[in-house]
């Protein structure tokens, strides 16, 4: 298979497992799968783990870029994320009032000789990473069949 152009991701079944998918970008290849408990081969992270990895890595990169640009002595940011579903009525800041909604919990550990103001600024910047903004905004997904 030819490598996709930059900015395009191609996902194709590997044929090695029930749910195992090969993800190909212009410069990288990785596997995505479901855990054995749900019929997969656990050959790679599951789709939600990849979603969390996208948000976590974008957050860490954004913090690093900001700290470098502003001369903040951040030595490391560690981001821990979880995804779950909650009842809408249990969410104080959500527009959805009924049913279930997704919740991502993000914990950020900042390391370095940081004062309280620097820590507070970095925590504000975390919410400005591009993936956070994408996930927090309305998303239009357009789907069409090709190859016929």
Question: Can you walk through the features of this model?
Answer:
- The structure is a single chain.
- The protein has 148 residues and is an alpha+beta fold.
- The chain folds into two domains: 1-44, no CATH class; 47-136, K homology (KH) domain (GMP Synthetase, Chain A, domain 3).
- 28% of the residues lie in helices and 26% in strands.
- The chain has three helices and five strands; from the N terminus they run βββαββαα.
- It has helices at residues 47-70, 116-126, 130-136; strands at residues 10-13, 21-24, 29-32, 74-87, 100-112.
- The chain has a three-stranded antiparallel sheet with strand order 1-2-3, with no helix packed on it. Strands 4-5 form a two-stranded antiparallel ribbon.
- A hairpin with a 7-residue loop joins strand 1 and strand 2 (21-24).
- The mean pLDDT is 92.
